[in-house]
Automatic annotation (TrEMBL):
It is found in: Cytoplasm. Belongs to the metallo-dependent hydrolases superfamily. HutI family. Keywords: Cytoplasm, Histidine metabolism, Hydrolase, Iron, Metal-binding, Zinc. Residues 63-383 form the Amidohydrolase-related domain. Its cofactor is Zn(2+); Fe(3+). It catalyses: 4-imidazolone-5-propanoate + H2O = N-formimidoyl-L-glutamate. 4-imidazolone-5-propanoate binds at R80, Y138, H165, Q229, T311. Its EC number is 3.5.2.7. This is Imidazolonepropionase. Pathway: Amino-acid degradation; L-histidine degradation into L-glutamate; N-formimidoyl-L-glutamate from L-histidine: step 3/3. Binds 1 zinc or iron ion per subunit. HAMAP family: HutI. NCBIfam families: hutI.
């Protein structure tokens, strides 16, 4: 028999389900949630909550969906503190630092890489993250990339192939592009659900990016783009034209980019999510992505941590949400939506029946509504507003993932 849990006496419940309350956050007061197995079975007024095997008294605190972190790079070894210090002393971030991590990652054993990944995933869970995408991209040889995909597949909810991160030191750019779009992709394709490409000066130009995206589509894989991170470039337009699930960073956008991202949601097909990475913008001392303008134009926005050793060594989604509110002009509801349901849309997990890397199908995530996966984040605060009102405070009180208590 499936075990059930009732969480009642919830002071404020953020559902993202328009049927349960108006507005983007759809906040309910004095609510309860019933979980059966891995799914949410019931949502309603606390006073009307049915009994369950286990009762959790939320004591008036806020409950929201677990964070959906749709952009991380967690299969790596080594340390880049010195590069960070140099940046804080005024040096600009350049894509070349990636090769420092590539060297350390290649030299690490499987066990070392897996131990580091496990530690970082546990850290993210403690902060309320229940779904996590991670990328390859620090191997950049076929065996090293496939190894990263296998290790990531044992711990992440989605694995993305980022062989097109940079041209590895000592490689010929044309030959490497042939490898990444040919034999390397052929070998790794069964173990990943999407392909990503870093479209930027110092990494891959527009022509190379278009080739990577076309090769991915030919394998039936979804696509994402690292675009417009360090300056204006063709990444956003290429992502939208090719039907990418998301384009991430989006720091340097012109009006045509914003219009393209917003317009991508107006047709029959789903559009391209604009994923902003506030912690990365701060750590690289880049302008913050124009999330307010994107939302105003009608684009779908996600917030992710971009946890990686170079540009954003944090998986704190609460920090990203606080930054989005305090410095990017989003309302708390908009930021929380972007860090939960927005991430789910970016990963193609907002509908029932998505598959994890182990081949297991799951219900939709990013919402608290009957039938959705029970990914729940209880705050030690009466309202999600405290995420921005009390930035930097450890507000995570409890976390359930697929109905199981993980924190
Ligand atoms: O998303 N932009 C490219 N990739 C990572 C940085 C990786 C690194 O510097 O190690 C990012 O910021």
């Amino acid at each position: 028999m499936t075990a059930s849990i009732v969480i009642d006496n919830i002071g404020e419940l953020t559902t993202h389900d328009p049927e349960l309350g108006a507005g983007i956050g759809s906040r309910m007061r004095d609510a309860a949630v019933v979980v059966e197995g891995e799914r949410i079975a019931w949502v309603g007024a606390s006073a009307a909550a049915p009994a369950a095997d286990t009762r959790v008294d939320a004591a008036g605190r806020a409950l929201l969906p677990g964070w959906v972190d749709s952009h991380t790079h967690l299969v790596f070894a080594g340390d880049r503190t010195a590069e960070f210090e140099a940046r804080m002393a005024g040096e600009a971030y350049a894509a070349g630092g990636i090769n420092v991590t590539v060297e350390a990652t290649r030299a690490a054993s499987d066990a070392e890489l897996e131990a580091n990944l496990t530690r970082l995933v546990a850290e993210a869970r403690r902060g309320g993250t229940t779904t996590l995408e991670t990328k390859t991209g620090y191997g950049l040889t076929t065996p090293d990339e496939v190894r990263a995909a296998h290790i990531a597949g044992r711990h992440a909810d989605a694995v993305t192939f980022l062989g097109a991160h940079v041209v590895p030191a000592g490689s010929d750019p044309d030959a490497y592009l042939d490898l990444v779009t040919g034999p390397m992709l052929d070998e790794i394709a069964p173990f990943v659900s999407a392909v990503d490409v870093f479209c930027e000066e110092g990494a891959f130009d527009g022509e190379a990016t278009a080739r990577v995206l076309a090769a991915a589509r030919a394998h039936g894989l979804s696509t994402r783009v690292h675009g417009n991170q360090l300056g204006h470039g063709p990444g956003v337009q290429l992502a939208v034209e090719s039907g990418a699930l998301s384009v991430d960073h989006v720091g340097f956008l012109d009006d045509a980019d914003i219009a393209a991202l917003a317009g991508s949601w107006r047709g029959e097909a789903r559009g391209t999510v604009a994923t902003v990475l506030p912690a990365c913008d701060l750590s690289t001392r880049m302008p913050l992505a124009p999330a307010r303008q994107l939302l105003g134009a009608g684009a779908v926005v996600a917030i992710a941590s971009n946890a990686n050793p170079g540009t954003s060594y944090t998986s704190s989604m609460a920090f990203c949400v606080a930054t989005a509110v305090l410095q990017m002009g989003l309302s708390v509801e908009e930021a929380v939506h972007a860090a939960t349901r927005g991430g789910a849309i970016a990963l193609g997990m907002a509908e029932d029946g998505w598959y994890d890397p182990r081949g297991v199908a799951h219900p939709r995530i990013g919402v608290i509504s009957p039938g959705a996966r029970a990914d729940l984040h209880l705050l030690d605060a009466p309202s999600v507003t405290h995420l921005a009102y009390r930035p930097g405070m450890p507000l995570t009180a409890a976390v359930w993932r697929a109905g199981g208590r993980v924190v």
